[in-house]
Amino acid sequence: MSLTDEDKLGRDQFVTWCREAGCGVHVDAFGNIFAIRAGSRPDNAVVLTGSHLDTQPNGGRLDGIYGVLAGLEVIRTLNDHGVRTERAIAVVNWTNEEGARLSPGLTGSSGYAGDLDLSLARRIVASDGARFGDELERIGYAGTFSRRALDPIAYVELHIEQGPVLE
C-alpha cells in the first residue's frame, strides 16, 4: 500500500535499479518518481512510460508494477544493445494510484496532470489516520521536481488488471 514502510523499500529498490541503468532520478511534490534516460537531442519531447508500484489487496502481484518494471526493462535493453534514442525516455512511478490506504486514488497522476491541487492532496487522510503529505515526508519522497520539466510527446502504460490469478 502507498506510503508505507514497505512502499518506501520498493521505491528505494526501483531508484537503485534506475540509477544502475544510468537514469537520472527525480521526485516531484506528489512523490512521483521519474527515471530519465537522456536522449541525443535534449530539445525533443520525452517518451513517458510507467505505471504505479502500489497495489491493493488481491490486486495481483503484477498489476501496475508490470508497467513500471517494463519501462525500466526497455531502458536496460536499449543500454545492453548500445542504442541511443533521440528522445529521452522517462519511466514514472505514480504515487497512490490505487487508493487502498489513502483515498481517493490516482493522486500522483492527477497531480502531474494538474487536476489535483497539492495542498488538497497533502491533506488526504489514510485509513490509519496518517496524512498523505506527512507520509511522503516520513518516507523521504516529498520532492521538488517540476512537472513542467518534462514535455512528453507520448505516454505508454502497460497494465494488468488481473485479480489474484493471471491467465
Descriptive account of the structure:
The chain is α/β, with parallel strands linked by helices and 167 residues long. The chain has a single domain (5-156), classed as Aminopeptidase, CATH 3.40.630. 31% of the residues lie in helices and 16% in strands. The chain has five helices and five strands. The chain has helices at residues 5-20, 65-80, 107-113, 118-122, 132-139; strands at 24-27, 33-37, 46-52, 89-94, 152-156. A five-stranded mixed sheet has the order 1-2-4-3-5. Helix 2 links the parallel strand 3 (46-52) and strand 4. The longest helix has 16 residues, at 5-20. It is globular, with a radius of gyration of 16 Å. InterPro entries: Amidase_Cbmase, Peptidase_M20. This is M20 family metallo-hydrolase. Keywords: Hydrolase.
Rg is 16 Å
Distance between the termini: 24 Å
Name the CATH architecture. 3-Layer(aba) Sandwich
Strand element count: 5
Secondary structure category: alpha/beta
Low-confidence residue ranges? none
Q: What is the number of independent domains?
A: 1
How many helices? The count is 5
Protein name: M20 family metallo-hydrolase
Pfam families: Peptidase_M20
Keywords: Hydrolase
Explain the layout of strands and helices.
Layout: H1 5-20, E1 24-27, E2 33-37, E3 46-52, H2 65-80, E4 89-94, H3 107-113, H4 118-122, H5 132-139, E5 152-156
Parallel strand pairs: 3-4, 3-5
Antiparallel strand pairs: 1-2, 2-4
Organism: Paraburkholderia youngii
Keywords: Hydrolase
Protein name: M20 family metallo-hydrolase
